[in-house]
Amino acid sequence: MSSTAAESLIASRAGQARMDGRHVRVLRLWLGALALLIVAMILVGGATRLTDSGLSITEWKPVTGAVPPMSDSAWQEAFDAYQKIPEYLELKRGMSLDEFKTIYWWEWGHRFLGRLIGVVFLVPFLAFWFAGYISRALLPRLLGLFVLGGLQGALGWYMVKSGLVARVDVSQYRLTAHLGVAVAILGYTLWLIFDLGRESKGATRSGTSAAAWVAGVVLALIYLQILAGGLVAGMDAGFGYNTWPLINGAFVPSGLGEASPWYLNLFENPLTVQFDHRVLGYAVVLATILQSGWLAARRGAPELITSGFILMCLALLQATVGVWTLLLGVPIGLGLAHQAGAMVLFATALYHLWLSLERRAPAGRTQAAASA
């Protein structure tokens, strides 16, 4: 091969590398916007729950439901439908149309965000696919994200249906499942962002298998705590027992096992549900402290020590906000701050796990691939 041809080939590959880098940056911005929208939707969902707005729309119209009532007659029709469900008949009888509009807008906003996320995913996805920005390896992972989003919408309606016939609110089981899937979708999206461009990195390994196992346990505890928070929200268990650190004058109060069979206490006894949420919070804080100290004692990779320390600080802050929220009887602002803190804590724990799992190809292999 002539020197001119070799130089041309090198220049071409360098240009391709730059193009790949640009593709990665664009895809990260796109997925980052999606992740922010998912967080926004989770928070609006929390506000919808705290304002008792989740049952204000009694129909599921995935396409036409994007348009809110535009006339007095349309508003009255929506209000008439709401007046037929148990929540209105047993708890909200006498509500005015203007009061109904307030709760309607919360639920409409929550559903609108879901539709917006679908559009923000699908339109850029098709554009990036046709433009060649999406690799073969990434394509099925993105399609999986789209499918999960669609299933989450169906699960949301399944949750709402539980409160339209025989209950005055939605099932705490379905609400917790809806929240859990939303957080899982957020985690999946963030993992895609972390992984983008990873194959082009050099030879290092930022963690050990032991560090990965510890990080995985901490992440699992945080996710379990979020699910426990879903049960607390689903049963309005945060509005009672607003003292800390004791409940009814004891750290372990009586009445935790009143339901029968015993395991129903974990899901249907408000006292037990709140107690479990507290204990899991203590466990998360303790686990992050132990992980941070263990990483520092082992003199692990600097980025792992740093992320572990940040995670510990966030866990302490989240626990503080949680106690503050409880003591004040769950005001909406603090309740949403606590929920936002849970998302930040989860994202940080996920990134810490990603760092602990990160393995990169040996430098010799990377150079051999580049010269092939």
How would you sum up this structure in a few lines?
With 372 residues, this protein is mainly alpha-helical.
What would you note in describing this structure?
The protein is mainly alpha-helical. The protein has 2 domains: 14-200, no CATH class; 204-372, no CATH class. Helix content is 72%, strand content 0%. It has helices at 3-50, 72-82, 86-92, 97-131, 139-161, 172-195, 209-234, 265-268, 270-298, 302-327, 332-357, 363-371. Mean pLDDT is 89; it is low at 5-19, 202-206 and 360-372.
Low-pLDDT parts are: 5-19, 202-206, 360-372
Number of domains: 2
Q: Taking Cα atoms only, what radius of gyration do you get, to the nearest Å?
A: 25 Å
Q: Give me the number of helical elements.
A: 12
**Biggest pleated-sheet summary:** none
Note the quaternary state here: single chain
Q: Kindly state the number of beta strands.
A: 0
Q: Please report the distance between the alpha carbons of the first and last residues.
A: 14 Å
- Percent of residues in β-strands: under 5%
Globally, the shape reads: flat
Structural class: mainly alpha
Range of helix content: over 70%
Instruction: Give the overall pLDDT as a whole number.
Output: 89
Q: What series of H and E elements makes up the topology?
A: HHHHHHHHHHHH
